[in-house]
Amino acid sequence: MEYVVIIPAAGSGKRMNAGKNKLFLTVQNVPVIIHTLQVFETDPLCKAIYLSINPGERESFKLLINQYKINKVKAMVAGGKERQESVFEALKAVRETDIVLVHDGARPFIRHSTIRRLVEKAEESKAAIVAVPVKDTIKRAEDAQIMETVERSGLWAAQTPQAFHMSILKQAYESADRDQFLGTDDASLVERLGVAVAIVEGQYDNIKLTTIEDLYFAEAIIKNRLSLPEG
Ligand code: CTP
Ligand code: MG
Question: CATH for 3-227, among 3.40.50.720, 3.40.50.970, 1.10.3210.10, 3.90.550.10?
Answer without folding.
Answer: 3.90.550.10
